[in-house]
């Protein structure tokens, strides 16, 4: 009889433990990779090209820049920065931000990316963009990061890498066709 009580208590404790661990209200988590594939390869290229610098990934915009001003305008600007991240931040030995580096997967920047670039430009931070299909060499990365601004009078010019800068964004000379995808 005592064996039956021990067996029943072990089974009931196991059942109770299983119910606690598999409770629908308890969130479960798993480890997530920060960088994969081309992003990880580009990170290693950045580290190799800039060994004297600290390269960080997936930094929040609010950790790098903050809005100037007070009141509602500041709160609105802070809300625009909230939850957004940049690809890579390059810091020198004194942890001063040298540049923000983005790895683009599209032919041209989106409106969101352009708005983020404008925020960094107003803060005096360089944004450098490289295209993911043509990862630059370590010498190209180094020369682009340490490149002097084009206009010496204005130091917050946004330098772009040649692979993104030389793309012709004008409309092609193809005949007009209705490509509007309007959902009314």
Overall mean pLDDT score? 79
Radius of gyration: 25 Å
Order of helices and strands: HHEHHEEHEHH
Biggest beta sheet summary: 4 strands, mixed
Number of distinct helices: 7
Identify the notable features of this structure and list them briefly.
single chain, 184 residues, alpha+beta, four-stranded mixed sheet, 4 strands, 39% helix, elongated
Characterize the structure shown.
39% of the residues lie in helices and 15% in strands. It is an alpha+beta fold and 184 residues long. It has one domain. Helix 2 packs across helix 6 (138-145).
Short structural summary:
The protein is 39% helix and 15% strand. It has helices spanning 2-21, 37-49, 61-64, 72-81, 111-123, 138-145, 162-165, and strands at 54-60, 85-91, 97-104, 126-131.
């Amino acid at each position: 009889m005592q064996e039956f009580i021990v067996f029943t208590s072990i089974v009931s404790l196991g059942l109770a433990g299983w119910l606690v661990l598999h409770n629908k209200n308890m969130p479960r988590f798993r480890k997530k990779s920060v960088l994969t594939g081309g992003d990880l390869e580009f990170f290693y290229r950045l580290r190799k090209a800039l060994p004297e610098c600290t390269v960080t990934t997936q930094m929040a915009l609010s950790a790098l820049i903050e809005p100037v001003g007070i009141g509602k305008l500041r709160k609105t600007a802070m809300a625009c920065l909230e939850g957004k991240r940049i690809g890579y931040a390059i810091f020198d030995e004194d942890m001063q931000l040298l540049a923000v580096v983005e790895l683009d997967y599209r032919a041209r920047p989106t409106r969101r990316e352009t708005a983020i670039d404008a925020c960094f430009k107003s803060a005096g931070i360089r944004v450098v963009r490289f295209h993911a299909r043509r990862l630059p060499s370590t010498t190209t990365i180094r020369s682009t990061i340490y490149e002097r601004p084009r206009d010496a009078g204005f130091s917050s010019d946004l330098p772009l890498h040649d692979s993104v800068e030389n793309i012709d964004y004008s409309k092609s000379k193809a005949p007009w066709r209705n490509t509007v995808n309007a959902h009314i």
